[in-house]
Amino acid sequence: MVKIKKTRLKDFIDFVQQEYDVFAPTEVGKKTAFKKIDSAFEIIHDIVNTDRSPKEVFFPQSEVLFEYGKDGLKTPERKEKPIAVWGLRHCDTSSLTMLNKVFSDAHQMPDKDMFKDPYWKEKYDNSLIFNQACNTPLSTCFCHWFGRGPFDKTSSDIFVVDVDDVFLLEGISEKGKAFLAKYEKAEQATKEDEAKITELKRKAESFLAEKTDISELFEKIGKLWDEPIWEEISGKCVNCGACTFVCSTCHCFDVSDEGKKGKGKRIRLWDSCMFQLFTKEASGHNPRGISTQRVRQRFMHKYNYFMDNYGVHLCTGCGRCVQVCPVNLDVRELIKKVLDYKIS
Ligand code: SF4
Ligand code: SF4
């Protein structure tokens, strides 16, 4: 483990930028989001969850897949450097590993390679992921329900802890260890520094609200498809889609052709299963025409279907949906309702 004085962070970020485009939490209008930075001075350090999730670094809200015309198809060339992301919290690094399963691990398909998404893979496979410990989790955080925690080091290349006037950095993956070894200006961390991490971790865990045991969630929610619980839960949802857009793991998208006179672009755009038009078919039939069906789909996907496909819940407990929902539909309450529900 090494340490870098906060006053020297600019030098370290400059060093990272020699090899990578660096994305970090920063202000975008009145919101916070992970955006490409020019300098370390743009980084907001005291934020736990950015308003917008970091999925957009690798899966942008709008992305040109290719251009078409009379001469055929042209895929846009990516001229940027590989991506490094500074300031991710563990919930967000684990959300990226979940999205990577969708875009890169089509293990259910007979011809797996055909279903790997080159746009995602080109960015994510070459990235350097910094995972920063949460010293002060929020009241909306519930990562611990999923067996994770504010000081979880997995799903990253380099683990970072903000301690007094320094950042402590530990290489986790081989890539992360090799990168840190190249930065010769870092000092070795001391035993006292490491002891401070233990104390910060203890404090951070004490901020987390009581844990709910979700070991039965997959099986229980799987039995509720036809139960009236969904009418009760969806009653106040206005289907605004905000929860899906801020969610670090939601990944519904639409593909649209924009062009005229024989040329144009095919664009991938975020969409939401909470929108009525998302499943409307050309015939006019809509298998999820009412809100109850859409709310059920969102939560069945998160806590049953994805687990069935990939062995993990499609939720990290980041709490962004709790913060943003205009009618206070709290996913933690939904989970508790499901677990307590008695099938008649
Ligand atoms: S469902 Fe909510 S808590 Fe879970 S990952 Fe999405 S935004 Fe975070
Ligand atoms: S943010 Fe709330 S009201 Fe909007 S779609 Fe999600 S659950 Fe429904």
List the helices and strands and how they pair.
Elements: E1 2-5, H1 9-19, E2 21-28, E3 31-36, H2 55-58, E4 62-69, E5 72-74, E6 83-88, H3 90-104, H4 118-124, E7 128-132, E8 158-163, E9 166-171, H5 174-182, E10 187-188, H6 191-207, H7 217-222, H8 229-234, H9 242-246, E11 253-260, E12 263-270, H10 291-310, H11 320-324, H12 331-340
Parallel strand pairs: 2-6, 6-7, 7-8
Antiparallel strand pairs: 1-9, 1-10, 2-3, 4-5, 4-12, 8-9, 11-12
The structure holds iron/sulfur cluster (2 copies).
Task: Provide structural commentary.
- The protein has helices spanning 9-19, 55-58, 90-104, 118-124, 174-182, 191-207, 217-222, 229-234, 242-246, 291-310, 320-324, 331-340, and strands at 2-5, 21-28, 31-36, 62-69, 72-74, 83-88, 128-132, 158-163, 166-171, 187-188, 253-260, 263-270.
- It contains twelve helices and twelve strands.
- With 344 residues, it is α+β, with helices and mostly antiparallel strands.
- The protein has two domains: 2-207, no CATH class; 217-340, no CATH class.
- The mean pLDDT is 95.
- The protein is globular.
- The strands form two sheets. Strands 3-2-6-7-8-9-1-10 form an eight-stranded mixed beta sheet, sandwiched between helices. The protein has a four-stranded antiparallel beta sheet with strand order 5-4-12-11, with no helix packed on it.
- The N and C termini lie far apart (56 Å).
- One iron/sulfur cluster (SF4) binds at residues 246-249, 302, 315-321, 331.
